[in-house]
Specification:
Distance between the termini: 50 Å
CATH class of one domain: Mainly Beta
Helix content: under 10%
Order of helices and strands: EEEEEEEE
Radius of gyration: 22 Å
CATH architecture of one domain: Sandwich
Largest sheet: 4 strands, mixed
């Protein structure tokens, strides 16, 4: 058995990717699912062979990576694996984009979100989809 280690990173958000999951498959079979809950590092042991890793973390897109685990080696360090930030996570901390009211009870169509600065605002999004 070979020890496999690695770290998840998301440089776009300038943070270590946390709450990650790594699933290990060989052919159609899932071999293991490893959680790095609250941390960026992961480690597990595998017999020598070819595997597919599916890696994901909080606020990051899923990445698939093929690895070969060589025989006669105690450890295989995959080092830092870069994950891309989701589009939504890149908007954290940014101001709310401009919006237009098309039909709302009790407000003029020219109302802007800035008109309610410092007040509670409830936005309810719904639709038939």
């Amino acid at each position: 058995m070979v020890g496999v280690t690695g770290r998840l990173r998301c440089e776009e958000r300038e943070l270590a990717a946390t709450n990650g999951f790594v699933s290990v498959t060989a052919g159609p079979a899932i071999i293991a699912v490893v959680s790095s809950r609250g941390a960026r590092d992961f480690s597990f042991r595998l017999p020598p062979g070819e595997y597919r890793l599916s890696l994901s973390a909080e606020d990051c897109e899923r990445v698939t990576r093929e690895i070969g685990v060589p025989a006669g080696q105690a450890m295989l360090d995959l080092e830092a694996i870069e994950l891309e930030a989701t589009v939504l996570s890149l908007l954290y901390g940014e101001p709310f984009p401009g919006w237009k009211v098309t039909d709302a009870r009790g407000v003029e169509p020219t109302v802007a979100l800035e008109d309610y600065r410092g007040k509670w605002v409830l936005l309810e999004f719904w639709g038939y989809w």
